[in-house]
């Protein structure tokens, strides 16, 4: 049973829902049960899916009361039923004997396709500045005070040394409506409980775009530094002293780290996707992964192949992606388009070999670019035209198709 997120109906600060007249405990029970049968959990909860198959969707309350979060609210089936009868969502049906419940057949689960993902992103908010020791239940209690939400995802990173997942202090919050999300973002001030610090709040789509621009700036900065170093070596004054490059020493600090990020050769960054077909293009893969908040540096994939290798931009994010996928699907499958692809983290010697191959190919491209630059400086007279007229561009196939390996933007 996966218990990582929750659906939320708003309950007033006085413990009573002013609209429906139910207690704070009723509200918590409704939230938890509707989470179990909600759009997000039911798709990935294999145990509950098996239970639903046995009796036309009905699940005995005795089974549900084995779930820790619900049992922590009440172990009395009558209390659970009484609370659910006060819900106005129409999501849950109660059996005549009041000993079973099910998701209403009149409320089908939306298909998780590209349109659905885009629609979810339109009402998803990124929040940063939360305590690193936060628990999901505490975060849910905090966020549902601001309106109706469907889901809260805690963003984590994996510490390879300790093999522990750590909360980043940021979350993605999916509101039930765009208007609800917009209202939350327009609040003048939002602080977490007793904290004096303002939470950073923005649309998820804006957060992803900002990260994309940051990566681009790092690449451009590294490119400028590389060119500056080449000029520094080539420009020598009459006394044999090389010209100093403009800029302070501080500007060069962290250059090695930037190079690693720019070239994308940090470890813990490679995943393999299997089960692809010609309906999936490399930009579909890139967009799907970046929707989850993880920037992509490179995709090795030829249209029609069954396997693609994805290199992420930041160190140790491959395992983070695997965790995010596992939250959506217990079989470690990521849905791209209409396909469910298996995801595997590439580690050890396999990752080392892949990254070394990437470095070698990048070096070849740089050498080729330098040679072309040298040719351009010398100029192309009539003498050289003949040998270039019929030469194919490096990386072009005989059919004229583009190269199979594509660098992600």
From TrEMBL:
Report the InterPro entries cross-referenced here.
Answer: La_dom_prot, La_HTH, La_xRRM, Lupus_La, Nucleotide-bd_a/b_plait_sf, RBD_domain_sf, RRM_dom, WH-like_DNA-bd_sf
Indicate, by first and last residue, each region the UniProt record lists as having compositional bias (Basic residues).
367-395
Provide the RRM domain boundaries.
123-206
Pfam families for this protein: La (PF05383), RRM_1 (PF00076), RRM_3 (PF08777)
Coiled coil stretches, renumbered: none
Give GO terms for biological process.
positive regulation of translation; tRNA processing
> Which molecular function terms from Gene Ontology are attached?
mRNA binding
Gene3D superfamilies assigned to the protein according to its UniProt record, in alphabetical order:
3.30.70.330, Winged helix-like DNA-binding domain superfamily/Winged helix DNA-binding domain
This protein's major location comes to: nucleus
Locate the XRRM domain: which residues?
264-391
Which residues are in the HTH La-type RNA-binding domain? 19-111
Ranges annotated as biased composition (Acidic residues): 249-263
User: How is this protein named in the record?
Assistant: LA protein
Q: What is the organism of origin for this protein?
A: Rhynocoris fuscipes
């Amino acid at each position: 049973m996966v218990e990582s997120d929750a659906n939320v109906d708003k309950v007033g600060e006085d413990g009573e829902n002013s609209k429906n007249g139910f207690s704070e405990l009723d509200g918590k029970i409704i939230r938890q049960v509707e989470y179990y049968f909600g759009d997000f959990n039911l798709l990935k909860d294999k145990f509950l899916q098996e239970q639903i198959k046995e009796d036309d969707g009905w699940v005995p309350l005795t089974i549900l009361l084995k779930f820790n979060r619900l049992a922590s609210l009440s172990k009395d089936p009558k209390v659970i039923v009484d609370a659910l009868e006060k819900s106005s969502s129409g999501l849950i049906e109660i059996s005549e004997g009041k000993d079973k419940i099910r998701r209403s057949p009149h409320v089908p689960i939306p298909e998780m396709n590209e349109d659905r993902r885009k629609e979810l992103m339109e009402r998803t908010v990124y929040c940063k500045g939360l305590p690193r020791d936060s628990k999901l239940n505490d975060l849910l209690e905090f966020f549902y005070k601001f309106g109706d939400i469907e889901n809260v995802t805690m963003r984590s990173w994996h510490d390879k040394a300790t093999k522990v997942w750590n909360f980043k202090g940021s979350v993605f919050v999916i509101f039930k409506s765009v208007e609800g999300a917009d209202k939350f973002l327009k609040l003048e001030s939002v602080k977490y409980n007793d904290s004096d610090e303002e939470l950073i709040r923005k649309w998820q789509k804006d957060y992803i775009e900002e990260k994309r621009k940051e990566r681009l700036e790092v690449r451009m900065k590294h490119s400028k530094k590389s060119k500056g170093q080449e000029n520094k070596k080539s420009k020598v004054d009459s006394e044999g002293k090389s010209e100093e490059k403009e800029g302070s020493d501080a500007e060069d600090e962290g250059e090695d780290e930037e190079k690693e990020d720019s070239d994308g050769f940090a470890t813990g960054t490679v995943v393999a996707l299997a089960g692809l077909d010609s309906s999936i293009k490399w930009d579909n893969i890139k967009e799907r992964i970046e929707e989850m908040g993880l920037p992509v540096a490179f995709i090795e994939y030829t249209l029609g192949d069954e396997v693609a290798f994805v290199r992420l931009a930041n160190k140790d994010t491959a395992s983070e992606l695997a965790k995010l996928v596992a939250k959506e699907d217990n079989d470690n499958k990521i849905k791209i388009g209409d396909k469910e692809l298996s995801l595997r983290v590439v580690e050890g010697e396999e990752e080392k070999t892949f990254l070394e191959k990437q470095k070698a190919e990048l070096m070849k491209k740089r050498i080729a670019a330098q040679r072309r630059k040298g040719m351009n400086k010398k100029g192309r007279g009539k003498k050289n035209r003949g040998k270039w007229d019929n030469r194919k561009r490096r990386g072009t196939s005989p059919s004229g198709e583009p190269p199979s390996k594509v660098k992600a933007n």
